[in-house]
Amino acid sequence: MTAADLTALRAAFGERLRTGEPLSRHTSFRIGGPADAFIEADSVAEVHEVLTLAARAGTPLFVLGGGTNILVSDNGIRGIVLKLGRAFAAMEWQANGSGTKVRAGAAVPFKKLVVEAAQRRLTGLEFAEGIPGLLGGGLLMNAGAFGGEIANVVEAIEGVDAATGPQQLPKADLSFGYRHFDLPRGWIVTHLSLRLAAGDPGSIRDLMAEYKQRRQLHQPLGYPNAGSIFKNPPGRHAGELIEAAGFKGRRIGGARVSEQHANFIVNLGGATATEVRALMNEIARSVWERWGVRLDPEVRLVGHWEDPA
């Protein structure tokens, strides 16, 4: 990133532009090196401005959500890291004859949305009880659990494109897959419209309580982590394969495979991205050599890595 790029950003955002910001402060793993430039945008216009400046300068741009499903390199991220601010953490609810529609900012905490939907006696989001992070990140990985996923309730998305500015795309133009969403190239998602249905309050509460209990039984608490490390291969469970390969409790430096659920790696304190990645590579290699099953990461590796990913 050039001095001229930083000057342009400083002129636009003043002291809100932070250089060398440690990304470990912004990830659930508590791991990650510095960002060249870190900006928190407070309006759609500011998002468009950052996109335009980055495109004009040819500067890489990374959008950071809640930091719950990523592993940021110890070397950090080159270029601009953009985070959506409080203006994108609001929800607007509108009831009509076919159910209830909520327009939610991409920076709305997933948990907050789920709780408020339940309080409004709306069904469709029970599966997301306990899913960490922000709604925008949930969209990008098509977050799901217990047979449900966000693709089932999304009606439309709004976003910003560097060339054309704000846009809206209906569900018919969106493409989802298992833990995957095809984000239009050059887009930054700012809002989602979700369609929910009226439900029985007791059934909603019971289902959420059941899912919460199941998560607490099987997911590690007390140590920073980034959620499930690998996607489940077709017809198999990644955690069962990793456990059968003898990796529960395996440790490299400050990174350890959880003894509660083998598809989680936890940061015992001071773990580096290099250590986590080395542990991931060992797991994937062992599972492939034993059973010929390929484990694909669910956690995204981002930033500047010194060797090929």
Major sheet attributes = 6 strands, antiparallel
- Structural class by secondary-structure content: alpha+beta
Rg, Å, rounded: 20 Å
Given as residue ranges, the uncertain stretches (5+ residues, pLDDT < 50) are: none
Number of strands: 19
Query: What proportion of the residues form beta strands (DSSP E)?
Result: 25-35%
Tally of helical runs: 7
Binned, the helix content reads 25-40%
What do you see in this structure?
- This protein is an alpha+beta fold and 309 residues long.
- Helices cover 28% and strands 28% of the residues.
- The protein has seven helices and 19 strands.
- It has helices at 3-13, 44-57, 110-119, 135-140, 201-218, 238-244, 273-291; strands at residues 18-22, 34-41, 61-64, 70-72, 77-84, 91-96, 99-105, 122-123, 144-145, 148-149, 154-161, 165-170, 176-177, 180-181, 187-198, 251-252, 255-257, 265-267, 300-302.
- Strands 6, 7, 8, 11, 12 and 15 form a six-stranded antiparallel sheet that branches. A four-stranded mixed sheet has the order 1-2-5-3, covered by helices on one side.
- α1 (3-13) runs antiparallel to α2 (44-57).
Write the layout of secondary structure elements.
Elements: H1 3-13, E1 18-22, E2 34-41, H2 44-57, E3 61-64, E4 70-72, E5 77-84, E6 91-96, E7 99-105, H3 110-119, E8 122-123, H4 135-140, E9 144-145, E10 148-149, E11 154-161, E12 165-170, E13 176-177, E14 180-181, E15 187-198, H5 201-218, H6 238-244, E16 251-252, E17 255-257, E18 265-267, H7 273-291, E19 300-302
Helix pairs in contact: 1-2
